[in-house]
From TrEMBL:
Lineage, highest ranks first: Eukaryota, Fungi, Dikarya, Ascomycota, Pezizomycotina
Protein species of origin: Neonectria ditissima
PANTHER family: KINETOCHORE PROTEIN NUF2, MEMBRALIN/KINETOCHORE PROTEIN NUF2
Similarity-based family: Belongs to the NUF2 family.
InterPro entries: Kinetochore_Nuf2_N, Nuf2_DHR10-like, Nuf2_N_sf
Name this polypeptide is given: Probable kinetochore protein NUF2
Length: 461
């Protein structure tokens, strides 16, 4: 078997089945020639059966263009701007290489092919435009007319979607215009931004210069402040030195003023002054000696006074101790008096207790005598109670014996009564059974009698 590259990989049965389905669909969708011609003439195109059987490509293209305009609102003129823009985009300066008619026909062919694909024609080609055949035209026109009829039946839905599409288009146009306006505003804002950036850059550079100058000024200020502190410190030191110098000057001036009269006087006057000063000095020494003696006497007197004061203080302390001892003695005396009173009270209480004890002993002797009497009486009563108990025990024994005898008799009687009751129940059951049997016998006899009477009546009749 030779290899055939054109052989299909689909099985023949499947191909025949799909072809059969297509033929059935075509047969269902196919319209008569007169109906096709009538529909085309109704839309305003002069078309006959002969034109359908022997189609003219130009005429057929006009019909297809009319259908495309009706259903898609697309013609060669409507697709021309888009095709021209596409040619310029692709070919650039050489867009005139492709003729305008060919270019428009290609765009129209794409729109028409999309329409026919939606109608159910999936194998539409250029041959259907340039070399149409009767079978192909009948099939294509049938599908187109059926689609138009279906479209007319769905006019409300189509109008609704058309209105939505129109509103969408208007919305798109408004958004496009708004977008254009926003783009213009954006460009203006960008330009303003660039201008502002330039200004900001200039201001930032100026700020940097000002910062640099400010730092330099701050450094200079710190240097000046340091120099000012040093100057203040030096000023303080100099003021202190000046004060010391002025103080020394004043002291020297005072000393010079003191020594100046001595320098101006004569030697004799100076000797007289020295003699006077010696006398004054001797007088001062004698006065000082007398004051020393007086101070020593006062010291001795103060020492004696201190000794006396210490003795007086010790005496006062002894007196205080004596007073405290006296107060303690008084407290002891008071406590002893209280204890003496308490002892006297306790003696009285003891005598009272002794008296109460004698009285209680007397009462105890009386109560002991009474208890002895009561014990004797209770013993006597216990003897009598024992005797009575023995008597009662004998009586109880006798009564228990009688009770047991009576119980035995009662038990015998109870057994006899139960036996008699049982016999009575048996008799009752026997009697009831006899009554039932008698009743049954009575019913049987009554039935026999009735039967006999009926037989007699029948016999008499």
């Amino acid at each position: 078997m030779s290899y055939n590259p054109r052989m299909s990989i689909i099985p023949n049965a499947q191909q025949s089945r799909s072809r059969k389905k297509e033929e059935e669909a075509d047969a269902f969708m196919r319209l008569p020639d007169r109906e096709i011609v009538g529909c085309i003439t109704d839309i305003g195109i002069n078309f006959t059966v002969a034109d359908l059987q022997k189609p003219n490509p130009t005429y057929v293209q006009q019909i297809f263009e009319w259908f495309a305009e009706l259903l898609l609102n697309a013609t060669r003129d409507s697709v021309e701007p888009a095709m021209r823009a596409a040619a310029e985009d692709i070919c650039g300066e050489f867009s005139d290489v492709i003729p305008a008619d060919t270019r428009n026909l290609m765009g129209f062919y794409v729109s028409l092919r999309r329409l026919l694909f939606e109608c159910g024609i999936t194998d539409f080609s250029f041959n259907d435009l340039y070399k149409p055949t009767y079978e192909r035209l009948v099939r294509i026109f049938s599908y187109l007319i059926n689609f138009v009829r279906f479209r007319e039946s769905q006019t409300s839905v189509i109008d609704e979607h058309y209105n939505k599409s129109e509103s969408t288009k208007t919305r798109i146009e408004t958004l496009y215009t708004e977008n254009q306006d926003n783009e213009g505003r954006l460009e203006d804002m960008r330009r303003n931004r660039k201008a502002m950036e330039m200004q900001v850059r200039e201001k930032s550079m100026r700020n940097e210069d000002l910062k640099r100058r400010l730092l330099e000024l701050r450094r200079n200020q710190e240097k000046v402040a340091a120099r000012l502190e040093e100057a203040k410190q030096k000023k303080g030191e100099l003021t202190v030195l000046l004060e010391q110098k002025t103080q020394e000057k004043l002291t020297l001036k005072q000393e010079s003023t003191k020594l100046r009269p001595y320098v101006l006087q004569s030697p004799s006057a100076l000797q007289d002054n020295l003699a006077e000063l010696r006398e004054i000095l001797n007088n001062d020494k004698s006065h000082i000696d007398s004051l020393d003696r007086r101070a020593r006497a006062l010291q001795t007197s103060t020492d004696s006074f201190s000794v006396v004061s210490t003795d007086v203080a010790s005496c006062i302390k002894i007196l205080d101790e004596i007073s405290t001892e006296l107060s303690k003695e008084e407290e002891e005396m008071a406590r002893n008096a209280k204890q003496r009173d308490a002892l006297s009270e306790r003696g009285n209480n003891a005598r009272e207790v002794e008296r109460m004890e004698t009285m209680l002993k007397r009462q105890l002797s009386k109560w002991s005598e009474r208890t002895e009497k009561l014990r004797e009486q209770s013993h006597h009563k216990a003897q009598e109670a024992k005797k009575r108990m023995t008597e009662l025990q004998a009586v109880h024994k006798q009564l228990t014996e009688e009770h047991t005898d009576k119980g035995k008799a009662m038990e015998v009687r109870r057994v006899r009564i139960e036996q008699t009751e049982k016999k009575m129940l048996d008799l009752k059951e026997n009697i009831e059974n006899e009554v039932h049997t008698a009743h049954d016998e009575y019913l049987k006899m009554e039935a026999h009698i009735k039967l006999y009477i009926t037989e007699m009546e029948q016999a008499v009749a």
